[in-house]
């Protein structure tokens, strides 16, 4: 049960179709029955089989991609899938199928655009999900809802994926047998929203009404990460519930610093530099107080450095998309970016290949590349995300 977008012509000797599903033919695309004996330069061929079309989960961080890159930025794992203030956009010229999870934690976002329509009300989305087109693309017992919850707070908004984090971590760790790799340091840290321990430092900021999350993230990138002594570090900045309180409204800013290079100790040095910056410029930054935690010494020869956030968050679903033209998914909101309605630029970069219609159905998925977001200090900052995910072997997979 799947919708398949076909963008080229294919010669086949026979085809076994599912009981329910559809083939969407682009202009000039189609299938032709070919007599193998009439083509002397062609062999008998091999059966090409679709891989499991239900294996893609909304909660899998591997499946979301951002086309914007900025050296040094990443997101904690829980924020690598859409948050409640984000806009999710499936391009109209794409086919996909995504599981909504077991239903224990409903998926809620600001809006969803799919098949050329944008859904901002639950009533309209429910009608679409119950339709044949909706059932072909979204499945599982999980609930999907939308709401016009724009994040208007300059200090940012909490992502809202805490309840879904067990499912996010299960999907993230599934290729590793469900177990976290051992962190390559003593006294490793596990920040809020992260699935596994990491090596580095965590700075927690108590903020006032004048704090601006985007401006502070840009300050870290421009003022600190560009310095030679902090080369190889990555930073994640987001608003989280205050860990020492039960009230969700009581929040703080979490700054996660991770070491990815051979040099060690840089995360701790940068954390102390951020504390000194708060001591000197806290009033202007809107920061009232800052504390830090640092992991211990590195364990040399360790086989893994943990799932430090080298792979960025956010925002493009590399699902079952039978498509050569790059689809676009945009997430917007002050949690990460201000809402912006600009059209997507042409010529999107390649994300990763994920052939589903292939001669070797057991082929492993490639590891995702490291991505991050370009900070914008201006009021109208923009973030766009792209990926190319052809599911056909041969010419289409290489396009």
From TrEMBL:
<protein>
    <recommendedName>
        <fullName>Protein amnionless</fullName>
    </recommendedName>
</protein>
<keyword id="KW-0812">Transmembrane</keyword>
<dbReference type="GO" id="GO:0015031">
    <property type="term" value="P:protein transport"/>
</dbReference>
<keyword id="KW-0472">Membrane</keyword>
<keyword id="KW-0732">Signal</keyword>
<keyword id="KW-1003">Cell membrane</keyword>
<dbReference type="GO" id="GO:0005886">
    <property type="term" value="C:plasma membrane"/>
</dbReference>
<keyword id="KW-1133">Transmembrane helix</keyword>
<keyword id="KW-0653">Protein transport</keyword>
<dbReference type="InterPro" id="IPR026112">
    <property type="entry name" value="AMN"/>
</dbReference>
<feature type="transmembrane region" description="Helical">
    <location>
        <begin position="307"/>
        <end position="329"/>
    </location>
</feature>
<dbReference type="Pfam" id="PF14828">
    <property type="entry name" value="Amnionless"/>
</dbReference>
<keyword id="KW-0813">Transport</keyword>
């Amino acid at each position: 049960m799947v919708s398949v977008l076909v963008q080229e012509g294919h010669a086949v000797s026979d085809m076994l179709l599912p009981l329910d599903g559809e083939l969407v033919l682009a202009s000039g695309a189609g299938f032709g029955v070919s007599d193998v004996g009439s083509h002397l330069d062609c062999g008998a061929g091999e059966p090409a089989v679709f891989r499991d079309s239900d294996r893609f989960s909304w909660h899998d961080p591997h499946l979301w991609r951002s086309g914007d890159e900025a050296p040094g930025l990443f997101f904690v794992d829980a924020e690598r899938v859409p948050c409640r203030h984000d806009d999710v956009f499936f391009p109209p010229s794409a086919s996909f199928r995504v599981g909504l999870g077991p239903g224990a934690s409903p998926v809620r976002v600001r809006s969803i655009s799919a098949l050329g329509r944008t859904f901002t009300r639950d009533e309209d989305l429910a009608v679409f999900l119950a339709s044949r087109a909706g059932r072909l693309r979204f499945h599982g017992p999980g609930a999907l809802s939308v709401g016009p919850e724009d994040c208007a707070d300059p200090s940012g908004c909490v992502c809202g994926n805490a309840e879904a984090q067990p499912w996010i971590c299960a999907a993230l760790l599934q290729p590793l047998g469900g177990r976290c790799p051992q962190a390559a340091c003593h006294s490793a840290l596990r920040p809020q929203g992260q699935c596994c321990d990491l090596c580095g430092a965590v700075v927690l900021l108590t903020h006032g009404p004048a704090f601006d999350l985007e401006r502070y993230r840009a300050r870290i990138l421009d003022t600190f990460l560009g310095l030679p002594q902090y080369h190889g570090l990555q930073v994640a900045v987001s608003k989280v519930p205050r860990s020492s309180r039960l009230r969700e409204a009581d929040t703080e800013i979490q700054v996660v610093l991770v070491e990815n290079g051979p040099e060690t100790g840089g995360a701790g040095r940068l954390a102390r530099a951020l504390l000194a910056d708060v001591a000197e410029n806290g009033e202007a930054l809107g920061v009232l107080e800052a504390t830090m935690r640092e992991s211990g010494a590195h364990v040399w020869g360790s086989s893994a450095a943990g799932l430090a956030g080298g792979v960025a968050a956010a925002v493009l679903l590399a699902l079952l998309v039978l498509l050569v033209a790059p689809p676009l998914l945009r997430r917007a909101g002050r949690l990460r970016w201000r809402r912006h309605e600009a059209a997507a630029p042409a010529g999107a970069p390649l994300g990763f290949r994920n052939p589903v219609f292939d001669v070797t159905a057991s082929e492993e998925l490639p590891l995702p590349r490291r991505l991050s977001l370009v900070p914008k200090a201006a009021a109208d900052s923009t973030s766009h995300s792209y990926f190319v995910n052809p599911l056909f072997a041969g010419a289409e997979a290489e396009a």
